[in-house]
Specification:
The chain is of the alpha+beta class. The chain has 2 domains: 4-79, Ubiquitin-like (UB roll) (Roll); 88-157, [2Fe-2S]-binding domain (DNA polymerase, domain 1), CATH 1.10.150. Helices cover 34% and strands 16% of the residues. α2 packs across α5 (142-157).
Length: 158
Amino acid sequence: MKTIQVATTINGDATEFVCAPDESLLDVLRNRLGLTGAKEGCGTGDCGACTVTLDGRMVCSCLVLGAEVEGSTITTIEGMSTADALHPLQQAFIDHAALQCGICTPGILVAAKALLDRNPDPTDTELRYWLAGNLCRCTGYDKIIAAVQDAAQKMRTA
């Protein structure tokens, strides 16, 4: 099968990879680049476990072809923290016990960060609508909402 060479920026780093024309971005991230934070929950774009940002938009990486990201900027869960510290959202999820099995957590964190980048003071209703594409089967959502609101408040006062 023919392969395609792709140049992109992932988590701030210029990145090149080779992939099959029909290979999903999720598979490229996990299997070719070792970025295993994004998870495959459904493979059909219904659960949000594989959410990343692509040129500033949230996408389900299972629905995007790796070959389509030429010249794009991608941010994954691995790009949220620094070598020295967790992102406030990540710390809030720990502090509020807003995660259990962890399959949904990376996608929810990426989505929550995308919301807070646009709206640093969302209402609970706005937050619930924004995260509606991310399914969690373990925690329910109350702890997730509380964690995001706590992180939002800390980020606003920082």
